[in-house]
From TrEMBL:
It is found in: Cytoplasm. It comes from Spirosoma profusum. This is Epoxyqueuosine reductase. Its cofactor is cob(II)alamin; [4Fe-4S] cluster. Transmembrane segments: none annotated. It comes from the Bacteria. Pfam families: Fer4_16, QueG_DUF1730.
Length: 312
């Protein structure tokens, strides 16, 4: 690896830390050979449910050079979102996933990645590249794994030894040669806590999640009525679900994030079950104005609330 690649890599990683990312790693922009058959089988078995977008752009998902001409490197960044304090989770409280407490991560990470890309242009010059945050056909976890930022756990989330798994992933795909990091070992061992804890049995085998059985899928992606056979199994989750991460021993290392944008609206921190049951369009718009919860729209959220409430 020639000297500029090493120098540029160090420069970019230092800037990523300064911008607020918790981790930054680099992988060579190659075809994802290991993931190709796994993705194909997963789709063939219908484990994406109604997430039809997962079946689109199959080739692009597996080869970053189809997304950025002459791509040479994939920079992956992690941004912690673990909250200082969880929202109330008493017996009958309704729950939303921790990633949705604050501002929508798409915007937060995209802005930080654009800042990193602007820095690269200023410091290094004409570099072709694009920023990606979970909205294009990029296999985030595969690239994070290749960049040595963690391993993919049995619940199929990326686990980092230092901070667990409560973080967002973003990428810059560049036509710039950088020094790649190597992957790290899988440290799940014989543990099956995530598999045992999933109330809808969505983790159908170690490292395989049937997306169409996941509480996050039912409460966010599914547009029609939630199937009756899962009634009573949602453990009060009305947007997303954190069960498989909450029980993971690696998350004892989770530490509070340092991103002001992820601090929840103060009103949300005192929300009771009754507040959820009586939520109006105005309240929804005010509290979730910049939140990922907007994805369900009020009508979808009300469907989830009614479904969970009728089972208690």
């Amino acid at each position: 690896m020639h000297a500029p690649a090493h120098h540029y890599t160090q420069l970019i990683k230092a800037k990523a830390t300064e911008i607020g990312f918790d981790f930054c790693g680099v992988a060579k922009a190659d075809f994802l050979e290991e993931e190709a058959p796994l993705l194909e089988n997963w789709l063939k078995n219908g484990m994406h449910g109604q997430m039809n977008y997962m079946a689109n752009h199959f080739d692009k998902r597996l080869d970053p050079r189809l997304l950025v001409d002459d791509a040479k490197s994939v920079i992956t960044v992690l941004l912690n979102y673990y909250p200082e304090e969880k929202l109330p989770e008493r017996n009958d409280d309704l729950k939303i996933s921790k990633y949705a407490y604050g501002a929508d991560y798409h915007f937060v990470i995209k802005d930080k990645l654009k800042e990193l890309l602007a820095f690269i242009h200023d410091e290094i010059g004409e570099v072709g590249g694009r920023a990606f945050v979970d909205s294009a056909p990029v296999m985030d976890k595969a690239w994070a794994k290749r960049a040595g930022l963690g391993w993919v756990g049995k619940h199929t989330n990326l686990i980092n030894r230092d901070i667990g798994s409560f973080f967002f992933i973003g990428e810059l795909i560049l036509d710039l040669e950088l020094e790649p990091d190597g992957p790290i070992t899988d440290y799940c061992g014989t543990c099956t806590r995530c598999i045992d804890a999933c109330p809808t049995d969505a983790i159908v085998a170690p490292y395989v999640v049937d997306g169409s059985k996941c509480i996050s899928y039912f409460t966010i992606e599914l547009k029609e009525a939630i199937p009756e056979d899962v009634r009573g199994k949602f453990d009060n989750w009305i947007f997303g679900c954190d069960i498989c991460q909450d029980v993971c021993p690696w998350n004892r290392f989770a530490r509070p994030h340092q991103t002001a944008d992820f601090i929840p609206n103060p009103e949300l921190t005192t929300f009771t079950k009754n507040d959820w049951l009586e939520i109006t369009e105005d309240v929804f718009r005010e509290i979730f104005r910049r939140s990922a919860v907007k994805r369900t729209k009020l009508e979808g959220l009300k469907r989830n609330i009614a479904f969970v409430n009728s089972a208690t």
